[in-house]
Structure formats: structure tokens, C-alpha cells
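[Automated response] Your request has been received and processed.

Submitted sequence:
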Amino acid sequence: MAGMTFDESTLQESLRRAGLRVTAPRLAVLTAIQGEGRHRDAEAIADAARKRLGTLSTQAVYDNLHLLEAAGLVRRIQPAGHSARYEARVGDNHHHIVCRQCGFTADVDCAIGSAPCLEPSADHGFIVQEAEVLFWGLCPQCQQDSQKTQP
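Generated structure:
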């Protein structure tokens, strides 16, 4: 899904393939999540969906986010100390890098090998299906801002 542009008919078809009815709120929420590199929280998704529909309850946004996640159409990530974020890039085992200062989040492809990218030193009998790695640092804008404030 990364790097692809979605029109409304493509999103409607994605919903149908996932066994979901196409509704205006569901389509508005899914549209708000689309786009490469977007990692939006529920508030930003709700704002974008409301701009499209005019009105939408916060509960409806959360209900649709949970449904879309369960259907495998969106991925939820929750960096420590930050609200959950949702993205349309699903079906691969990519990772994320988060700015400690502003919270900007970007995708990071697997460094080596195929999913699950990392082999645990001990699997304790598990069949490893996914590795979740979160990198932390300062984004370029925050680096620039911190240099400006230093004497």
C-alpha cells in the first residue's frame, strides 16, 4: 500500500473485499488515514473526516478505526507517551522512528532480511510472526529549532 494513491472507488472496493459495508463515516475515516507517511492520531482523523462529512461523533470515529484495524485495512501503533496513531501501510513488517520532541513519526523499512526482520535470541517456543521496532530521536525540524535556541 505504501506509495499508492487511492481514489474513492478503490477505497470502497477495499472495504467490500474486507467484508465491510461502505458507509460515509467509514469511507471518511479511511480516506483521512490514506497517504504515504501519514501517522495520524484519532483527533486528526476525526477532524479530517468531519471536514468531509460535516459532522461525525468521536465514538463513530473510534468505532470505525477499530473496525478498520480488525479488518486489516489500517495499522495502529502507539509509541510510549504518545496517543495511538493509525496508518494505511499494512501487510509488511516495517518499523517507525519517532521524534522525542514533537512526536513526528516516519516509516522505516526493515533493515535486513524478510519479515520478521529480527530474530529473537530465544523464541520460548513461539512462532515469531512480527517484530516491532521503534526508533527514537529528533526530527530535522526539532534539531534545527534546538540549534536556534542554544546560546
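Summary generated for your ticket: Confidence is low (pLDDT under 50) at residues 1-5. The chain has two domains: 8-77, 92-149.
If you did not submit this request, please reply to this message.
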